[in-house]
Amino acid sequence: MVFKVSLVSTSPIDGQKPGTSGLRKKVKVFKQPNYLHNFVQSTFNALTPEKVKGATLVVSGDGRYYSNDAVQIIIKMAAANGVRRVWVGKNTLLSTPAVSAVIRERSGADGSKATGGFILTASHNPGGPTEDFGIKYNMENGGPAPESITDKIYENTKTIKEYPIAEDLPIVDISAIGVSSFEGPEGKFDVEVFDSADDYVKLMKSIFDFESIRKLLSSPKFSFCYDAMHGVAGAYAHRIFVEELGAQESSLLNCVPKEDFGGGHPDPNLTYAKELVARMGLGKSDTGVEPPEFGAAADGDADRNMILGKRFFVTPSDSVAIIAANAVGAIPYFSTGLKGVARSMPTSAALDVVAKSLNLKFFEVPTGWKFFGNLMDAGMCSVCGEESFGTGSDHIREKDGIWAVLAWLSILAHKNKETLDGDAKLVTVEDIVRKHWATYGRHYYTRYDYENVDAGKAKELMEHLVKLQSTIPEVNKMVKGIRSDVANVSSADEFEYKDPVDGSISKHQGIRYLFEDGSRLVFRLSGTGSEGATIRLYIEQYEKDASKTGRESHEALSPLVDIALKLSKMEEFTGRSAPTVIT
């Protein structure tokens, strides 16, 4: 079929500034006339011509509501912009880590390679007609577009006057694997629908020892549960855990992807992953059923993960530290050693202690996976993570939830090499974590999220905290007036990062209060919501004494929580007497 290209007049639409995670808004906003079209064209215009004309692009996402419509719009605009081919995961489904893997690893039948891709996701935010949608662009390295590109996109959205589109291009059937070929003014244009899991599974099998994990999962001593929360991870869970690793079908929870995530909030934490939390024995009531030895959950686009043991929660900060500490022995991909490790600034310093002990390069970066990507592209970082349930490595340029689960299963398999046969006791998730604390100390840690706060009030709160930093002696008087059992504040600042690779400077990345005993309070405004502002408060207490690493977190952190809430005047500014979510 031959298609024609038409130019459609448009005008700028306010508020199309992409954040570190792309552009996220309510579905009704994306459905406004020209809203999605403007952003997509502004992205094409921000790229160099060779990344568009004659190029191969990936277009897929987590399958949330409005994805089917958005994919068809982007296909028509890609054709009109001279793109040579578009690759789409079957039923529009590709996890965010799988998109990164496809961009980096996949070759077409004619040897074509992707130069980038549009990912349709609002990550861990709810989906549905009244909920959230999102879009972001990833570059040829498989990672999120850098600020130099997202700034251009935003500037383009403020001046856009027209966009080309192939309106007469027929709707492409994205439910069936195959190639649809068309002819346009600039020549051939193909849309290839391919299996969502093939490339990703192949990559995972090159990283991990699947046979050792299969042996663990087949042991009567070990039991397993994985909750995809009706997100895109469901497109990979059966293939990897059941077909490749031999897990029981009954070990999979909510693994059918749904455009509204089954009405749930696909955020893998103790608040929203209620079914998994109950099954793992961490619910408020006793189910009377013995919990599995290992449990994990994914978010909507499968880049985040939560790791649980039997009646035991592993904090994301501890998780990345434990993976780094055990990677070389347990994961074949790292058998020659780690190049370095990195964490986001709000993440606890558990990884720092491991890095120091193992003499590894260590980096503390702002929140945003692109900062890790720079380090990885320069060969400076192998394993990284953030407290918001994101863990990953240099196999791709996104965080990777299933990778993290396979890493933990690899560590468990490695620790239990001698215990699966015979009467020896299984080394459990809790055993591994407690041994880690005994070796490296424990970083008691929690995060309070205040969601959908009035943006003006949130800004006032942050300004108040910055102003306080100018008088540390006064701050310490206030601290001692609130809790005399808390150490003095030794310093306070707004975190600023100079990228060691490209020299770029990122300012205003979070407000920090650092205490003399290694404790920290961190305050950040988050850009991952679609409405209002989210204030994130991070509270960390370091304990080196092995005899004191077994306390309950809420007990160990209670004094610092008091300090944080009163120092920030949280209730006064936000009107909230409690956070929306505690993790």
Automatic annotation (TrEMBL):
<dbReference type="InterPro" id="IPR005841">
    <property type="entry name" value="Alpha-D-phosphohexomutase_SF"/>
</dbReference>
<dbReference type="InterPro" id="IPR016055">
    <property type="entry name" value="A-D-PHexomutase_a/b/a-I/II/III"/>
</dbReference>
<dbReference type="Pfam" id="PF02880">
    <property type="entry name" value="PGM_PMM_III"/>
</dbReference>
<dbReference type="GO" id="GO:0004614">
    <property type="term" value="F:phosphoglucomutase activity"/>
</dbReference>
<keyword id="KW-0460">Magnesium</keyword>
<dbReference type="GO" id="GO:0006006">
    <property type="term" value="P:glucose metabolic process"/>
</dbReference>
<dbReference type="InterPro" id="IPR005845">
    <property type="entry name" value="A-D-PHexomutase_a/b/a-II"/>
</dbReference>
<feature type="domain" description="Alpha-D-phosphohexomutase alpha/beta/alpha">
    <location>
        <begin position="317"/>
        <end position="418"/>
    </location>
</feature>
<comment type="similarity">
    <text>Belongs to the phosphohexose mutase family.</text>
</comment>
<comment type="subunit">
    <text>Monomer.</text>
</comment>
<dbReference type="InterPro" id="IPR036900">
    <property type="entry name" value="A-D-PHexomutase_C_sf"/>
</dbReference>
<keyword id="KW-0413">Isomerase</keyword>
<feature type="domain" description="Alpha-D-phosphohexomutase alpha/beta/alpha">
    <location>
        <begin position="16"/>
        <end position="163"/>
    </location>
</feature>
<dbReference type="InterPro" id="IPR005844">
    <property type="entry name" value="A-D-PHexomutase_a/b/a-I"/>
</dbReference>
<dbReference type="InterPro" id="IPR005846">
    <property type="entry name" value="A-D-PHexomutase_a/b/a-III"/>
</dbReference>
<protein>
    <recommendedName>
        <fullName>phosphoglucomutase (alpha-D-glucose-1,6-bisphosphate-dependent)</fullName>
        <ecNumber>5.4.2.2</ecNumber>
    </recommendedName>
</protein>
<keyword id="KW-0597">Phosphoprotein</keyword>
<dbReference type="Pfam" id="PF02878">
    <property type="entry name" value="PGM_PMM_I"/>
</dbReference>
<keyword id="KW-0119">Carbohydrate metabolism</keyword>
<dbReference type="Pfam" id="PF24947">
    <property type="entry name" value="PGM1_C_vert_fung"/>
</dbReference>
<dbReference type="InterPro" id="IPR016066">
    <property type="entry name" value="A-D-PHexomutase_CS"/>
</dbReference>
<keyword id="KW-0479">Metal-binding</keyword>
<dbReference type="GO" id="GO:0000287">
    <property type="term" value="F:magnesium ion binding"/>
</dbReference>
<dbReference type="InterPro" id="IPR045244">
    <property type="entry name" value="PGM"/>
</dbReference>
<keyword id="KW-0313">Glucose metabolism</keyword>
<feature type="domain" description="Alpha-D-phosphohexomutase alpha/beta/alpha">
    <location>
        <begin position="198"/>
        <end position="308"/>
    </location>
</feature>
<dbReference type="Pfam" id="PF02879">
    <property type="entry name" value="PGM_PMM_II"/>
</dbReference>
